[in-house]
Amino acid sequence: MLDGGQNFAGDMQLLQSIAEQLKMPLTAIARQAELGECGANISALDFRAVGEQANTALTLVDNYLLGLRLAVGQEILALEPVSAASVLADVAHELDGFAKRYAVPLEVHIAGKYEPVMANRKALRAALTSLGYELIAAQAAQCEAADTGFASAMGTAKNTESIGQDAANAAPKPLRASLILASHRTAHGIVAGVYGDYAMLSAPRWRKALALRGRAHQPFAALSASSAAGLFVADTLLQAMTAQLRVGRYHHQQGMAATLQPSRQLQLV
Amino acid sequence: MATILLIEPDLPLAKTYMRAFAQAGHAVHHATMAQQAIDLADVAMPDVVVLELQLPAHSGIEFLYEFHSYAEWQGVPVVINTLLPPQELSDVAQTLREALSVHAMHYKPQASLRLLLRSINDALVANAASKKAVT
Are A221 and B57 spatial neighbours (Cβ–Cβ below 8 Å)? Predict the structure, then answer.
């Protein structure tokens, strides 16, 4: 982020990444609007989809601006004891509609009881939300079963229109792999992250993605078809709290996570 | 009416395209990734492919080369509908058109459903005409 101009180039790269990322939800909204204009049978489900696309885009922008304000001192990053579990629960609630739209089941796993972490609740929630949006879309695209519910319903010529409309109006069938929002303790601290079915996710690929941020249309092609701006915004917010987004594992799933330091304050009370 | 293989990684956007194509009377099969699309083409026997180049894991260009390597699919026209800006494809446009059966290339943010459908229809007509000329 901005730091006496030294990181201005890095900030421009993040901005470029976000601009690229915003093309998708805005295109989706424009095409939905066009479909409605053509007299398609637009259901309440479709209006909700448009709303969710718009909210995703707005959240990305808001979270980026939060990171920017923290970086330039317009907003004070006050660290306080924060329950990682409660933040994850909030994030899961915020992501719920979006996850349903992409037919990705969400789970929240809190392993054991442990003390709060030293973090800024607003920034941590924003980081995990940005991360969640990105990984939900990635999971949906990569899941093997993504074809069901649509292609199989669009079959023969004579039934195309009615089957097509029924299939299009139906919510997508749930895909197999869940996205897990989890926190657990490690020797280094409390890890909070988002995990899923990402076979090609690795630390070297993530490092390469960071280097390609804003310079490649698809800096993290192993994970995502997009510019992965949500990951970079999450990383920026976490770095403001001296944490870092990295590739992590939870049980047999891979994902992105950050290690946060436990708060000692309540232990002294 | 034709069978369209739509390769689009974003599910909600794909759903919109599928509705538009279905409304126009086409049968639509959807894949989110290159390998999945190759597998689906075997089953779906598409008349035309609508392809996003920015795909997870393997790019749309890799898909095009793989798809075109099969004799039975070499004549299937491809309409590219991508987030990549047109200026970044100008160097490869000729190769895509001549060697990989790409009929048209569209920049997704600016390509309306109407334009896309027109492209699809043009590709189908051109393909039918060239098949007739051969026979």
Answer: yes
